[in-house]
Design a protein that fits this description.
heterodimer, A: 247 residues, Rossmann fold, 6-stranded mixed sheet, 10 helices, B: mainly beta, 11-stranded mixed sheet, 3 helices, 21 strands
């Protein structure tokens, strides 16, 4: 499905070049849900943005379904079947939830269809369909709408950049269900989720640990997850907030 | 009454009219009234001293509308028209105005409409005014509307002003005076392109207890165009006033927003907000991740913004 070959990414400042990713090679197979985790600042989000084309690698190539997409624009990659859910959903004055779902799905979907996508992320659809995507929506609401947009695109590859960030507890419960649902229907598509959350890691087929700009470890969930528990790569459920796990 | 294709196109743009409207109307084309109808509750009378009409809406008139569109299809015309609306107590009506100019010639075409509204106690008016220009001629399309609104106790006026395309030069002046409990809501949508110039000024006085005004402008300046938004609210009584200018600039567009708030009473609460900037890069990228090109993304963002 997706292959990253020797990807490096650096940002230049006046004094020095800062290397964010160094010689990352990675393959994401069809039918797999892969969670990329690792300490903050390790380069996970950058990797996701490189795959979508929002950033361009300093060196290395990216292949999608066997085709070199390194030089393709964001639009071209989107059309080839890559979706991206932003860590910080973008707000728009005047554009409504329905407008975004129509743009995302690429057709004039009916209000009923749009509602189905919103219901899937736990939003009472009728209350939201005509709302503007502006600051009147909470962070959690915007985040769920962002995920509904990706669902409505039903592309081969869906990337979620820290879907749990800025989301409330109730939404988080729902989010896990959404990913479990996507996992069940994955067939020949692939899903990449950037996350620290143990419960999201638990949904994974494979886990990749990115640390210090490199692939530190990768493998089946069963192999990787035990070694991560208790490290800064994983936040266990909501135990800190509630004093008990898996709430 | 039959419309020629240019008249019809302009009427569609400014008033969504495909045929003669329901209710009362006065349709003006190239400086002449080409159709007029009064109803039992709304009486339209031409003025005798100057060009224009008096519109009398009887007290208690509900759910009726008045259309007074103006179209200009000949190059080089210049006119000033005075329309006065007298809205009786507790009437609740829709007034649709607007001007469309098609100028294919070399002479400038100019329509200056002076509209005065006198709302009696408890009267409610929704006023919709669209301006539109078309035509390939070198002559300019110029619109300088003046709007005055005088609201008695408890009267409400909602104004929607839209100018999206084709008007080369516009200077809009709106003055409103509100008595106790009166309410004014203005929603202005403006887009300028090429070397157009648009100036919009508001001078609102909140003169009675509980009066309120909410003046919001959303605008886009493209090309080499220039806009000035000058909104002044004066609070002379315990009252509430809010103005907002929210603008997108593109290309070499320029926008000047001038806030003006004057509180003459300790219980006057006045607020101004202004934001000017280009389309945020992240908005473009977000829509591109959904498969739009950069240009398509830009169009969607602007269409939504000016909705």
């Amino acid at each position: 499905m997706l292959e990253l070959r020797n990807i490096s990414f650096a940002v230049s400042t006046e004094e020095t070049d800062k290397e964010i990713l160094r010689d990352v090679s990675l393959t994401i197979d069809e039918g797999k849900l892969v969670v990329i985790t690792g300490p903050n600042g390790g380069g996970k989000s950058t990797l996701a943005r490189l795959i979508m084309g929002i950033e361009k690698p300093t060196s290395g190539r990216i292949f999608f379904r066997g085709e070199d997409i390194t030089d393709l624009s964001v639009t071209e990659r989107a059309k080839k079947g890559i979706s991206f859910a932003f860590q910080q959903p973008v707000k728009f004055k005047g554009l409504r939830v329905l407008d975004l779902l129509r743009i995302a799905s690429g057709k004039q979907i009916s209000v009923g269809d749009a509602c189905a996508y919103l219901s899937a992320v736990g939003l009472c659809a009728r209350d939201y369909i005509d709302r503007e995507l502006n600051g009147s929506l909470s962070g959690g609401e915007l985040k769920r709408i962002e995920i509904a947009e990706v669902l409505s695109r039903s592309t081969d590859l869906s990337i979620f950049d820290e879907p749990e960030a800025g989301i409330d507890l109730w939404s988080f419960q729902n989010l896990i269900k959404v990913f479990e649902g996507m996992r069940a229907k994955i067939s020949d598509g692939s899903i990449i989720i950037i996350s620290h959350q143990e419960r999201i890691l638990n949904v994974a087929d494979e886990i990749v640990v990115i640390s210090g700009g490199r692939v530190d470890r990768k493998g089946k969930k069963e192999e990787i997850l035990p070694s991560l528990l208790g490290s800064s790569s994983v936040v266990q459920g909501c135990s800190v907030v509630n004093g008990k796990e898996n709430v | 009454m039959k419309f020629d294709p240019i008249q019809l196109r302009l009427l569609q743009e400014i008033a969504d009219l495909h045929t003669v409207p329901e209710g009362a109307y006065n349709i003006r084309s190239d400086s002449q009234a080409i159709g007029r109808r009064s109803t039992d509750h709304i009486v339209i009378t031409p003025k005798t001293d100057v060009s224009g009409i008096d519109i009398e809406i009887k007290p208690g008139t509900k759910n009726e509308s008045v259309h007074i569109p103006v179209v200009m299809t000949k190059s080089g015309l210049k006119e000033t028209v005075y329309n006065d609306f007298y809205v009786g107590e507790d009437a609740d009506v829709l007034i649709v105005a607007g001007c469309g100019i098609d100028n294919c010639g070399a002479g400038d075409s100019e329509h200056d409409g002076v509209h005065r509204f006198f709302l009696k106690k408890g009267a409610k008016v929704r006023y919709v005014e669209k301006h539109y220009g078309s035509g390939e001629g070198s002559g300019k399309r110029i619109l300088n509307p003046v709007t005055e609104a005088y609201l008695d106790e408890g009267a409400e006026m909602q104004m929607e002003m839209v100018q999206i395309k084709g008007v080369d030069d516009t200077e809009r002046a709106t003055v409103a005076k509100l008595k106790a409990g009166a309410k004014l809501v203005v929603r202005e949508r403006l887009m300028t392109h090429d070397s157009q110039r648009a100036i919009s000024s508001y001078d609102v006085s909140l003169d009675g207890e509980g009066a309120s005004a909410d003046v919001v402008s959303r605008s886009v300046a493209k090309g080499d165009s220039f806009q000035k938004f000058d909104a002044k609210i004066t609070g002379n009584a315990p009252s509430y006033g809010h103005t907002e200018c929210d603008s997108i600039i593109m290309d070499n567009g320029r926008i000047l927003a001038v806030p003006g708030l004057q509180a003459n009473h300790v219980d006057a609460s006045l607020l101004h907000e202004a934001a000017i900037g280009k389309i945020a890069g992240e908005q473009l990228v977000k829509l591109m991740t959904l498969g739009l090109t950069e240009k398509e993304a830009e169009e969607q963002i602007i269409n939504g913004f000016l909705r």
